[in-house]
Each structure stands twice: as structure tokens, then as C-alpha cells.
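Hello again,

I reread your note about wanting to compare the complex against the isolated chains. To keep things tidy I'm splitting this into two emails, and this first one only covers the full assembly. Below are the input lines as submitted, including protein chains and any nucleic acid or small-molecule components. They are followed by the predicted structure of everything together. The single-chain runs will come separately.
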Amino acid sequence: MPALNHNLQKLTGIAQKEARLGIGLMSGTSLDGLDIALCKFKGSGTQTAFELLNFITIPYQEKFKYEVQQVFAKKEVSLEKVTLLNAYLGTFHGELVLQALNEWGINPGQVDFIASHGQTIYHAPGHQHKQPGYGNATLQIGDGDHLAVTTGILTISDFRQKHIAAGGEGAPLALYGDVLLGSKPGEHRILLNIGGIANLTYLPADAVTEVLCTDIGPGNTLIDAACRRYFNQPYDADSQIANTGEVNQVLLDALLDHPFFREALPKTTGPELFNLEYVADAQQAVRLFNINKTDLVATLSAFTGRTISNFIRTHFNLPGLKIFVSGGGARNPYIINYLKSTLPNAAIADTSTLGINPDAKEAILFALLGNEALCGEPMAIGKNPAVLMGKFSFAG
Ligand SMILES: Nc1ncnc2c1ncn2[C@@H]1O[C@H](COP(=O)(O)OP(=O)(O)OP(=O)(O)O)[C@@H](O)[C@H]1O
Ligand SMILES: CC(=O)N[C@H]1[C@@H]2OC[C@@H](O2)[C@@H](O)[C@@H]1O[C@H](C)C(=O)O
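Full-complex prediction:
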């Protein structure tokens, strides 16, 4: 039998190791920076033992954010810019990984794999694009080959395509990590992530078949967009703006009146739908042409709170429900207080009470998916695609 080439030999060696060091990378819809989580794994699937060794978010510079925004969540963009950014981002993320490893005093040679989400620039589930003849689609850029060659580390990337190929919408992938890291027999749990978009995984006390993972609607994306446009701030730090505004009930009702909220579950969305045009359309529908901008931020914050609490009350009105929050929205007091006051029967805490750093959770998820791609088996969870995801890029 011919010998395996050096890449396949190395790959097999990593998959068969007793313990693996993996880096998970997440660059979310908020475009705030690159989350880098260095994790140690033993085993896979339900036998996974995992430890977060280091975590950092390296913030993006304004110039870089501006470049990505040119091609982000827009129907028409420069194809040249997409092509340039696809390569640039892969190399850039690789450089940020090297920077983080240097700060942590770790030699890249010690790391077995990188699992990279890339940057979503367009998410197009069928219910949103409505183009006849086309199915669900999504596009993440930041090619894995560039990461692998820049760092010298085996890289696994582009996780969402397999999920779509196997019948999903390409998101949320949180499901696979949440089941492994967050389930507890005997407890009804919700793992709620409030990033640009809010999503949750419902983990019932016993039946894995009833696990549900879905996007809910906007998380911080509309609040951030209004803060950028009207206050020249990237976000509403500690809800300082929302807390001084008044919620406009008429606008809030108009924002809530959209077919997305009536779509079958599970469903996904993104800033392609939830953007300032969505807000302008809602204003138009109720002929509210002038609104004080502080009240607008309060109303958008209430919109996020209301969609999340409506969703949880409608689908999981259970005694003893425990909700664990992650993502930047866990640090938005307006949203968290809104949830606490409208879901009085649920215990709400952030995921640190589970030993999961709330800012690191999504980067950990991708590290975990990378570990599964290397040595796991497809997991059947309810009706979700039972597939291993990710494409392999070798350094040499
Ligand atoms: N102190 C704070 N006060 C209010 N909001 C905050 C605070 N810190 C972070 N945020 C919010 O969290 C956002 C970043 O969240 P996160 O990093 O979870 O998003 P993301 O990973 O890009 O999103 P997604 O999960 O949708 O891809 C910021 O843009 C801001 O809206
Ligand atoms: C297409 C895409 O990038 N979706 C993200 C986004 O951010 C939150 C929400 O929308 C979620 O569906 C998803 O990310 C997480 C990591 C997921 O797939 O679980």
C-alpha cells in the first residue's frame, strides 16, 4: 500500500492524539474584533473533556471595519473587494493568531489545529432571499489556506456549507457545542447568545430529540447601527443611551410585526434583514417620521428584549427554567433587566456560572467543531443535520 503523504500522516497523528490543542476563531456580525480561544481537548462527542486555556478578543481597527462593511450584508458589492478580502482576511486572522500565541508565550508548533469561522458577509436562508430555484445559502470569507500557510498550523474552516448541503440553513451551529457543554439531565436549560443576532439552544431535562437551536431575531445589531449613525459610537455602552430614553410603543409594535417572527422553527437571519432600513420601513408603516434618537435606541433595545422574552414565553413556559446568557449583549443592562422583568419565573445568569466565559463561547464552539471534524462522529440531535463540518487546509 502506498504511504500516506506528510499532510495526511500528520492529520492522522493529530486525530489519534490523547489530547489536542486547538484554537477556535470567531469574527461575528458585530465586526468588533477577532475572538481567539485556545482550548485543550481530550476525546470527542459526548466523551469530550475540554479546557479553555486562553482567550482574547483582538479589536479591529476602524479602517479594517470600514473595508469589511463595504461588502457586508449588502445585495450588491464590488466582487473585486470580496476577492481581495477573502485572501486578506485569512492572512490577517493568521497574523492575529500568531500575535495572541506570542502574548501567551506559546510556540505555534505546539498547536494542533485552528478552527476558523471566517467572516460572514452574506447570509441568505431561502425564507429571506425568496429567489425561486435557489436553496439556503451563506458566505464566509477568510480562506483557510491563507491561515494555514501564515501560521504553519493545520486549519479547519468554512463550517457552514456542509450544514446547508445536509439540509440546514448553515446556522445556528451553536447546537452542537451547547449540547456537549451545556446539557444537564434533570434541568430545562436555555443557552442564549446575544451577539449581533440573538439565538438560543433549548436543552430539555431529558429528551435530546427535543433540543431546539434557532435564531430569534436582532441582538445588538440594530442598537449598534443606530449608535453608529446617530451618536458616532460603536454601541450603547452599559445602556447609557437606552436608559435615558422612552420606548415608543407604536414603533415597537410596528417592529414586531414582521413575517420573520412567524417563520417555522428552526430559522436563521442576519443584518441582511435587521438593519436601519428595516427600522425605516417600520416607521413608514406607522407614519412616524420623527423620533428622538435617544428614544429610538431605547425602542430598539426593548425590541431585542421583547423578541427574546416573547419567544421564550411562547415556546418554553416551564417551571424551573434556567437561562444562561453569552455574547456582548450579556453586558447590556437594559436587555438583561428587560429579560429579568418579563421572565420572572426563569433563573437568568451568564454562562460563566457554567464555567464558560460568555465572550469566548462562540470561539470555543468552533474549536469544538474542529475537534469533532478531526476525531468525532456525526451527532444526531433531533432533526438537525447529523454531519461533521469543516474543510481541511494544510500548511505545506
Ligand atoms: N458594556 C456593554 N454595554 C452594552 N453593550 C455591549 C457592551 N459590551 C458589548 N456590548 C455589545 O456586544 C456587541 C458585541 O457582541 P459579540 O461580540 O457577542 O457579537 P458578535 O460575536 O459579533 O455577534 P454574532 O454572535 O451575532 O455573530 C457589541 O457590538 C455591543 O453591542
Ligand atoms: C450566518 C452567521 O454567521 N450566523 C451567526 C450570526 O451570529 C449569531 C447568529 O447569527 C448565529 O446564527 C450565527 O453564529 C453562531 C456562532 C452559530 O452559528 O451558532
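For quick reference: The chain has two domains: 6-158+360-393, 181-354.

B.
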